[in-house]
Structures are given as C-alpha cells and as structure tokens.
Specification:
By secondary structure, this protein is an alpha/beta fold. The chain is built from eleven helices and nine strands. It has a seven-stranded mixed β-sheet, sandwiched between helices. Helix 9 crosses helix 11. Bound molecules: pyridoxal-5'-phosphate.
Length: 314
C-alpha cells in the first residue's frame, strides 16, 4: 500500500452544516474573535459533554494554561503531570512558571497510574494541581485518581484533548475533575481548524478565564487593563465550524468505532488464516472503506451491525 492512512483526518458534515454557520458569520459581518457562533458553540458543547459552563479558546494548549491559571497555579508551584502524552499537556505548566513532576502511566489505561500518583504525593506533599490525560480516547482510572486527589485536596484538570465522545462510568471525560479541556486541532475528533474549549461547573472561574483570554480588558470606555491579559479567544468564524462539527459528532465517533471493530475482525481472520479477496491487511480494508469512501454512511451502519453479529458468532 503506497498511500498513508492518517491518524485522524478531518470529517466535515455531508450536509454542509459548517459552511452554513460560516456563511451566517460572513452575512452578518461577525468576523471577530467573539460573536453569536462562539456563544452558541459554548452552550452546545457544554450541553453535549454535560458541563455547566464552557469557554471557547484558540487552542487546547491555551485551555490548559487558562485552567492552570484558574486553579491558582503560579511561579514555583508543583503540578503533577502525566508522563505519556503530547508535549502540549506539559508546556503550559512552564508558561505559568510552575514545575511539572511527571507521573508514570498505568499498564491498562496508558494514563496516570494511581499507585504512582499516591507515591508521588508522599514525596511531594505540596502540590497545586494534577493534570491527567485521557490519551487516544482511553479514559484514565478516574475513580482512583479522584479519590487520591480529594484526599490531598488538590485541583484536578483533565486533558480530554483526544477524548471527545469518551465516557467514564456514564460521565463524559473532562467533566469529572474541576476543569476539563478539549482540542479542535486538525487531527482531533472534531476540528475547527484550530481551537479549544475549557469546561467547568464553576461559573465564576469560567467568567474569569473569558476575561483573561480577551486581554483582561476592564469594563471601561477606554482601554484599561489592571491584570495581565491573553489573546486566547476562538474566532466567531471558527466557532461556526465547531457548531457544524458537533452536529455530526455521533457519526464521527461511530465511524471510528466501526474502524476499530473492522480492524479487530481482520486481525482475528488473519490469525486463523482467512483472507479477504484483495484485502489481506487491515490497512487495505480500512483504506478501502474510510479513505476511498466507496460506501455511504448508511451502508457503514448496516456493515457495523453485520460486523457485530459476525463477532458474536465467531
Ligand atoms: C493530549 C493533548 N493535549 C493537548 C493538546 C493540545 O491541543 P492544541 O493542539 O489544540 O493546542 C493535544 C493536541 O494537540 C493533545 O493531543
């Protein structure tokens, strides 16, 4: 096979919802880093994941930094951070002049190992926050992690950049700790080309983040800034893409589930020496279905049912 299979390429809605919201922004001249799409995207996103409040930001990285700031993390503070992750999880700890201490990962979840976390608290009793990741859509062991963090009275920030659509015991990842962040980078479950979201049930902290992220502009007629500000808000045009993407989130996660099931079936068949005509590897099959898009989404659904039955009967 000569072509590459992308880790996670963008999937825009067949209905063109994203373009409709973008057009609306252009028609009403809301080409600004705020506006109705931003407000609605925040509300719709918060509802989707089951959080009370949300702030749409320019990236997942910015959302992590704002979460750390909201948690009071500043110079010299220790933040426990997952070791196996993308560098963008840890970088904002340094932006805040704090000190990351990396915690080893659990064999099963690939995320923070609760035993290692417990041990780390024995070595570092004064910790300001724990930054746990749900890597590759796999949830961390949140019951154990929350129990330990509550015992030590430490703020929990969940990096759910890669786990939109992942639930842990009925709760969406990113809504279990004090703050959750999501990324809408081009390689994420949904994309706004670039963007992020911070969610929390703490209304006052989310309002403060929105203030910091719009250059901390005081409510005065002239330009007045009594705090350090950031230019971290999501644009109204990009928030339009996000609103369209949210409408098809279930389809997107469905396609990914299907891909995983198909790959699993093919691996079982390969183990037993059974081969598909012209599709001898999982990559061939995935390429055929997902990149060339030879079948419609309705057919995908029918195929998923069949695959499930095949798995049950195998
Ligand atoms: C685990 C993780 N955390 C944070 C980020 C940062 O998100 P963004 O690229 O939107 O800044 C990413 C992705 O890039 C990620 O995979």
């Amino acid at each position: 096979m000569s072509d590459r299979i992308f880790l996670s390429s963008p999937h825009m809605s067949e209905e063109g919802y994203e373009m409709q919201y973008i057009k609306e922004a252009f028609d009403t001249n809301w080409i600004a880093p705020l506006g109705p799409n931003v407000n609605e995207f925040e509300k719709e996103f918060a509802k989707k994941v089951g959080a009370k409040h949300a702030a749409a930001l320019s990236s997942g990285t910015a959302a992590i930094q704002m979460a750390l700031k909201a948690a009071g993390v500043g110079e010299g503070d220790i933040v426990f951070c997952q070791s196996l992750t993308f560098s963008a999880t840890a970088n904002p700890i340094i932006y805040q002049n704090a000190i990351p201490v990396f915690i080893d990962s659990d064999y099963e979840t690939w995320n923070i190992d609760p035993n290692a976390l417990e041990e780390a608290f024995r070595k570092y009793p004064n910790v300001k926050a724990v930054l746990v990741v749900h890597l590759y859509g796999l949830s961390a062991d949140m019951d154990s992690i929350m129990e330990i963090c509550n015992k030590h009275n430490v703020v929990v920030i969940e990096d759910a950049a890669e786990s939109l659509g992942t639930y842990y015991k009925g709760r969406h990842t990113g809504t279990i700790g004090d703050y959750g962040i999501f990324s809408f980078n081009g390689n994420k479950i949904i994309t706004t080309s670039g963007g992020g979201m911070l969610v929390s049930d703490d209304e006052e902290r989310i309002a403060k983040v929105k203030f910091w992220a719009t250059q901390s502009r005081d409510p005065a007629r002239h330009y007045q800034h009594s705090e350090l500000g950031f230019n971290y808000r999501l644009s109204n045009v990009l928030a339009g893409i996000g609103r369209g993407q949210l409408k098809v989130l279930n389809d997107i996660t469905f396609l990914r589930d299907l891909e995983v099931i198909i790959m699993t079936v093919i691996k079982v068949f390969q183990r037993d020496g059974i081969s598909f005509k012209g599709m001898d590897t999982a990559e061939d099959f995935g390429d055929y279905l997902l990149r060339e898009k030879k079948i419609t989404e309705g057919e995908y659904r029918a195929a998923m049912e069949k695959v499930k039955q095949m798995l049950n009967n195998y």
